[in-house]
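Hi everyone, sorry if this is the wrong subforum. Our group has a chain we'd like a structural model of before ordering constructs, and none of us has done structure prediction before. Sequence below.
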Amino acid sequence: MDEEIAIIDANTKNEKIKYFFINNKKILIVGISTLLLIVTGFFSFEASKKRNKIKLANQFNLITINYKENTKQITVNKLTDIINHNDATYSPLALYFLLDNSLVENNIETNKLFDELINETNLEKEIKNLIIYKKALFNSDFETENNLLNILNPIINSESIWKSHALYLLAEYFYAKNEDQKAKEFFKQILILPNGNTDIKKKTQKRLNRDLSE
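Answer:
Right subforum, don't worry. Here is the predicted structure as tokens:
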């Protein structure tokens, strides 16, 4: 008797499942199709990203290998295009090449390229902080005190690994302007950083002892 009841229950369950699929066939087909489209789209997107990455890598390598003084503007244009692709790897590398070779002579244009990376490119936090630091370093020869501080504020107000570098840049900036008190304030901030760069701390202590001792 128990076996017969079990068989009936099983048959009933199977019938319910069967009718569920029949009654909801359209919904199930749409759901499965949507899921397949999402999965296919995801893998297509990833494959496209990979292809674009390889393409940018090849472009960057060709541009930098073939760089010559008489093709300077062509190099600038092509590397600027790579920067505007907002790639996390090759956009920063393109800007570094421009900076290292002093290819962009207009400071406004150079800062626009920095801002493209900082504001529009999806970068790891410390990579972004490094670029902010490099922007400040680039601007330190001609920018005002307030503008330089504004550039570096995101690093100074964080626990970034580049914080000691940012503070040292500001300290040296004020030292070069003979504003010793401001310089000392920033140098002293470096010495109390718990995770400050060791070499920066050594240079700071040397500067305080040699040139800013009371």
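For your construct planning: The longest helix spans residues 25-65. Residues 118 and 131 are 7 Å apart (CA to CA).
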